[in-house]
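Protein modeling request. Please complete all fields; requests missing the sequence field cannot be processed.
Requester role: graduate student
Desired output: 3D structure, token encoding
Chains: 1
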Amino acid sequence: AGAMQSLQTPMMLVMDALRDHLSEAGFDIALHVRRACFSAKPAQVLERLTAQHPASAWLILGSKEPMQRWFIRRQVPCLVMGSCAPEIGLPSVDVDYHAACRHAGSVLLRKGHRRIALVLPRDAYGGDVASEAGLRDACQSVAHVQVSVLRHDGSRGHVCSLIDKSLRQAKRLGPLARQAYTSLTAVWAQSEADAQRLRQRGA
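Delivered output (203 residues):
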């Protein structure tokens, strides 16, 4: 249960469905969480993990190039749930983030928005890079559009400070912020300060 809780909600839904289908086919699925597998040098941890837990195939979630190259070198059967580097020849399943963000950008432009921000991690990879490219593709043919990419360090505080700074700088702060936040059907606030910030933005 603890391992499942470490996943984001969309991925939890995918894993639940996958587990149901595999169970019906007579297979078991085990979830292993090792932060060290996502480091720049994951070989030792991956060697130990795969030796301790033999499997017919591995589903690797949120992986980056060092992990993917290890699976290629070791010829361990796997499926990447996410994006691969362009030169990585592993089978993968992912959302078309380029198309999704290009569509999102087009929708915002049609609604008259000309200052658009995209929040991404500093170590953007795969789908994050494709998301930025899709948004920029949507905006490049329209004059006087400003696209800002807010790159965070992964901490809640840094994300909030970047968004607050961006909203303060926006020329149309009130309408933009209120429309964005009131469109949410649910908002997760981790502290009273978070809740107050969201209420001030119109949530």
